[in-house]
Design a protein that fits this description.
362 residues, TIM Barrel, 3-stranded mixed β-sheet, 13 strands
Amino acid sequence: MRRLLVALCAAALLAPACASARTVPEGFFGVMADGVLMTRDDASFAHEFRLMKASGVETIRPVVYWADMQPERGGPLITLSLDRLMGEAARNGLRVVPVVLRAPAWARVDPSNFASPPRDPQDFAAYLQALIARYGPNGTFWAENPDVPKRPQRVWQVWNEPNLNRYWSSPKPFARDFVALQRAAYRAIKAADPGATVVLAGFGNDSWNALEKAYDAGLNGSMYDVAGMHPFSGRVANVMKIVRLNRQVMNRHGDARKPIMITEITWPSALGTEATTTTGFETTEAGQARKLTEAYRGFMRRRKAWRIQNVIWSTWLTSDMGSTNSFDWSGLRRLNPADPAGEPLDKPALAAYRSLALAAQR
């Protein structure tokens, strides 16, 4: 039957049948667009986005740092970097799931600590509304750039792994204050764009326990539309278990119908490198490709039962050299050590990703 549908598509005889041949929803295959990718010159940056599209990427997840975009209270947003990304995403028809985090010094509980959360959730809420005013349905970005296909930004993820000191250093425990931030953010986003989708932060480590603590602190389904999840583990079976445990927490709290985004998953190919800041799940380049394949196949089998909308690999491009952090070996592509400013090199994981994504999108 599948061969017949492909033949009909090629003959352009039955459009509805062709559309139904997809085995995953649009946007299912995603990557993080961050790190060294953001340092590339304009020509290389545009090339990487075209290559993403050709490789089956349909969703990107950039990191949007409030501290970088609004370093002064009441100041205008510094939008050059995000403008460039939104423009290339629109030109290539890619969906965008921005994760918005990191308060500027003027807004932090502890101004001296870059990971300190906002002192007043309303400051963060106002920033989110400023982003929507720039990139949302009536955004100034689209009016100022008529040559860019208009693809209003209508999905926003609120913070990243707030149960970890790296992203939410104080106050502790995190849950009460994070839930207050989530509530304010949800209301602000919906006030600015009622049709927007609000994605709950993915929690780190024992994420199901962190999610339970958030519910205990007042989180409920009226504060988010989609749950983000970050199921990191050395074994793919445990990755699946982590998502199942989070799904069970949601179900117990009345959110069984809420969908899920796997907003980060990865295995760094840092085994045997100079990386000393490690995760415990480093592997080789060949191992990275095998685990990626196994994980995506596992998520595709379970996506309906668990209501998974997409799975975002972290990340598209990394340096794979000169760093102590093993996550700097997590890319599908890597810099060329002989010419770091030149054309990056593909890793085996990219071939695995491309094969899975393009086959699922036929």
